[in-house]
Amino acid sequence: MNLLDIRNLSIELDTPSGRVLAVDRVSLSIKEGEVRGLVGESGSGKSLLAQAIIGVLEDKWHVHADRFHWRGIDLLRLSIDDRKALLCRDIAMIFQEPMSCLDPTTLIGEQLSEAIDTSQLSGYFWQRKKQRKEAVIKLLHKVGIKKHEQCINSYPHQLTEAICQRVMIAIALAGRPILLIADEPTAAMESTTQGQIFRLLANLNQLKNMSILLISHDLENLTHWTNTITVMYSGQFVEAGSTEQIFNKPMHPYTRALVDSSTKANLQLPTKSRLMTLPGSIPVLQHLPIGCRLGPRCPRAQQTCVAAPTVSNYHGHKVSCHFPLLRETGKKVKGSH
Amino acid sequence: MSVLLDVKDIAKSFKLKGHWYHKRKLNALSPLSFAIEAKKTLAIVGETGSGKSTLAKILVGAETPTTGKIYLNGQLLKNQHFKQRCQHIRMIFQDSGTTLNPSLTIQELLDEPLILNTVLNEKQRKNLIRTTLQKVGLLGDHMNFYPHMFSGGQKQRISLARAIILQPQVIILDEALAALDPSLRSQMINLLLDLQQQMGLAYILISHNLGIVRHFSDDVMIMSQGEVVESGKTIEVMRNPQHKVTQKLMMSQNFQIK
């Protein structure tokens, strides 16, 4: 069953010069126990989408969706308070730069015990304090911190970045979430610590069957850790499919360019040869092209691209393009969507 | 080919606070030597605290080495002689957004090194700025813009323009490609490679992305805790990593070359 099922979610922003469509009809579905990657360059609206899912956007952003289901419950029909209560229980989120997200004036132990809900503790009120501390230590062990006593009694600045991110994950785990949204959890980290954090997330996914939505701007870093990937560009849905489909047989020109420009995927290229790349730069929110927003940079663009393409489904590989790259011409089966 | 930059036994140690008959020293950099030829790229890979940024600072002259000498074209670079050094060795930083002065236009930004280091008049300087901006893929008219009007990739190009405007021989890229989006990063790599061929530049690339290092560099130097643990031709080192640190780095990025 789909855990999260979003169809045609749009996010609009009120600006002095009228409303701007920041995220344009993006669909996203997450199955139970799945690690889904959400890839997009800066300004592609991936963080906005994550914030819209957990409902922490400010009032100036307007969110619409054709369908927004969480485990079969239609969230659009619920009142705001009900929705918050539901999502708080089931979804947790971790952010980039863990150092700046933790309170610098409070001990790690206090911050962790704050996150533990009283309903999880059994026993009388005089036993609660001890139980709470035990729960904190258990959480720290879960994320692989062995020196729990030292960690509880330190402030965020006394710990390394990797440990801080582990503490953030521990705080997120305190509510026993079903879905963890990780918004660039390893940005600006060492590659060895990046590996540690990704491995921890993969372990949690395997052992606790927790679904993870992994957001990143770099396709090549994600491919090792995800089952399925959704690619976004400038607020529009580009392509979705399993990791193999996206990385080995990309259908959208943008995904193709991302894979081609990755130095890691093209090890057969001679060194110092020119890399494939798209011309131009990412459009800013005030000057978005009409239709397919990749249009001005796309090598395959034609006149029809001024109208936004619809999503077509090829064996679960969804692509939003007028002229997708179909290399196996014999297998062309156009499914319904 | 002749050696362009020759570094001999550079070392750096910092004095830590302590009692004065109980002084402690921190060795940030153990003695190391290397040499680069023109049109070649040396990559320096290592974790934080491995001394790679200290090495970059010593090369541009922001820090003075405790021991050792640096030769450029066979000429000894003196420690306090910035005029000679800053014309030939330039640096690009990781976060281009914060290294450009927001209150100056691009023209004023690029004018500064020219006023300080050359004897060109105003018209010549303006022409040089225009051609340099075109060289890095921007328009000459962009010189009247302020840094906030550019996107991240364009800002990085401006930093590059500032680096090449004095016709240097060595450019140090201190994680200059790390903060860019993938499609802009490959544009930037192409641009850097073109400029290397045109101007005969030598690059020193500090990076932890092994994919870029493999594609971009001829030689590689892997550092750990101030020491060079492995060095050689990039392809050979990556095909057959000998030291534990190298193996760990390659493992952590799931990186393998047959």
What does it look like?
Chain B: It is a peripheral membrane protein. Chain B: It holds the Pfam family ABC_tran. Chain B: One of its GO terms (biological process) is transmembrane transport. Chain B: It is found in: Cell inner membrane. The complex is a heterodimer of chains A (337) and B (258). Chain A is of the alpha/beta class. Chain A contains eleven helices and 13 strands. Chain A has a domain of 194 residues: P-loop containing nucleotide triphosphate hydrolases (Rossmann fold, 3-Layer(aba) Sandwich). Helices cover 31% and strands 23% of the residues of chain A. The relative contact order of chain A is 0.14. Chain B has a domain of 163 residues: P-loop containing nucleotide triphosphate hydrolases (Rossmann fold, 3-Layer(aba) Sandwich). In chain B, strands 6-7-8-3-9-10 form a six-stranded mixed β-sheet, sandwiched between helices. In chain B, helix 5 packs across helix 6. The relative contact order of chain B is 0.17. The model of chain B has no long low-confidence stretch (mean pLDDT 84). At the A-B interface, helix 8 and helix 11 of A face helix 6, helix 7, helix 8 and helix 10 of B.
Major beta sheet, strand line-up of chain B? 6-7-8-3-9-10
**In CATH terms, what is the architecture of the domain at 3-48 and 60-100 and 167-242 in chain B?**
3-Layer(aba) Sandwich
Strand content of chain A: 15-25%
Q: Give start-end ranges of low-pLDDT stretches of chain A.
A: 329-337
Structural class of chain B: alpha/beta
What would the average pLDDT of chain B be, to the nearest integer? 84
- By CATH, the superfamily of the domain at 3-48 and 60-100 and 167-242 in chain B comes out as P-loop containing nucleotide triphosphate hydrolases
Q: β content of chain B, as a range?
A: 25-35%
- What strand line-up does the widest sheet of chain A have? 7-8-9-3-10-11-13-12
Largest interface: A-B, 31 and 36 residues
Helix content of chain B: 25-40%
Number of helices, where a helix is a run of at least 4 consecutive DSSP H or I residues of chain A: 11
The CATH architecture of the domain at 33-55 and 90-105 and 155-309 in chain A can be given as 3-Layer(aba) Sandwich
Helix content of chain A: 25-40%
What is the top-level CATH class of the domain at 33-55 and 90-105 and 155-309 in chain A? Alpha Beta
Task: Give the termini distance of chain A in whole angstroms.
Answer: 17 Å
Summarize the helix and strand pattern of chain B as letters.
Answer: EEEHEEHEHHHHEHEHEEHH
From N to C, what is the helix and strand string of chain A?
A: EEEHEEEHEHHHHHEHEHEEHHEE
- Output the structural class of chain A: alpha/beta
Query: Gyration radius of chain A, to the nearest Å?
Result: 22 Å
Oligomer: heterodimer
Subcellular location (chain B): Cell inner membrane
InterPro entries (chain B): AAA+_ATPase (IPR003593), ABC_transp_ATP-bind (IPR050319), ABC_transporter-like_ATP-bd (IPR003439), ABC_transporter-like_CS (IPR017871), P-loop_NTPase (IPR027417)
Keywords (chain B): ATP-binding, Cell inner membrane, Cell membrane, Membrane, Nucleotide-binding, Transport
Protein name (chain B): ATP-binding cassette domain-containing protein
